[in-house]
Write a structure and sequence with these properties.
The chain is mainly α. About 50% of the residues lie in helices and about 0% in strands. It starts with a helix and ends in a 9-residue tail after the last helix. The C terminus is likely disordered. Bound molecules: zinc ion.
Amino acid sequence: MKALLSLLSGKCPKCRSGNVFTHKFYNLLSFDKMNIFCPICNVKFEQETGFLWGAMYFNYALTTGFTIIVSLILYKFFNDPPLEIYAIIIIGTILLLTPLLLRFSRMLMIYLFSPYRKYRGE
Ligand SMILES: [Zn+2]
């Protein structure tokens, strides 16, 4: 449970207190900027070059799931509006949620695939 809270709040997977990202998600110019090393325990977040490219697949899955859910909500509760309304609402909400989706995808990648445990005991 603590790991999930740390993941959602953007904390380091090892010490769970250092920030992974340097800025808040609502800073539109720098929401994707990350610390290279944890400021508390000095673990390296990007284990190897291109490690975070895997977050792209998480982002794809999250965006697809979000699109399906919003489409079902529009279909069920708004009486199947015209296709343009679907496109405008889905594209608009995805653009608004881009910082959160990107950060959550990267955090999932770091938490699920980062071999940070090898740094334990240093
Ligand atoms: Zn740390």
